[in-house]
Amino acid sequence: MDLQLVAYIAAFGGGLVGAALGGLFVFSLCGIFCIIGVAVALAGVDYDFLGQLAFGPFLGPQVAFAGAVAAAAYAKRTGKLDDGKNILAPLVGLGSSSVLLVGGVFGVIGFALEKALKSVLSIDSTIASTVVLTDTVALTVVILAAVTRLSFGRTGLVPSNHGGPGAQIATRWHPTATQAWLPFQSHRLQVGTVAIGFGLAAGWLIVSLPDSARALGPVLLFGFSATTLLLLQIGLSGPVSHHITLPAGLAAVALLSAGAAGPIALLGAVVVALFSAFLAELSSRIFHTLGDSHFDPPACAIAVTTSLIVGAQLAFGQL
Fold it and tell me: Does the predicted model carry a pTM greater than 0.90?
């Protein structure tokens, strides 16, 4: 049997596993596998650990996380779950095979969609053989969040309350602690502080890596940040930072590749970190806060910032 066909079949299992374990936990597992994958790649092992496992049909966010998000929304719609935005609960605990099967179906859709997007959004380059214009994994998560909302939700893509225009503005832009995406990381000063700290850390990692390993730096940063989400899984108010460290790392790599000095790359990483952090918070207010299914703010921010970074590299002839 063709390996690609096997991968599509496996993606059904990946989406089902994601639903069974819960979206946040399976996303953290992806982070752990990213760290292992980077180590494997640096060791020279002849196996695409990152492509086949961390971002493949087993744990890829476009498969397992997207499947879990869809399954939670379906469970809410069918009265099996109180909150359709709940990505912490292992949905196997609901005792419903239909919920898990929805996760499997969305896993296959996510796997196929990401491959299609990568094909459509790839261009030939004079410097690199092929350039992908955005983070297709993040874009797939965003698209499937929209499909999930339209399929199982009742609030629409850009939800609003029904308290009149004034109340709507107050609720959207000043959500309560129960409404906010991250109550402890939603105020402007806190968002900026977290972004600066993690942006500096991400920039330093990239600057400190040798040229031969630098391309793997952003993946390592993503893995680190995704793994730290286990703090949320166990009930602690841990930071959400993968939408900060990944774009910051990509920006630092781009600047160093363009011949920028270390301090400039570090500064660029912080600027991009700030932009992406506030973009995620904006996305949460528009799509997530008042919705009845999870619409991932970090994925929105990563898709946009990656596109801007790649676009800038192409404009300045770096790709």
Answer: yes
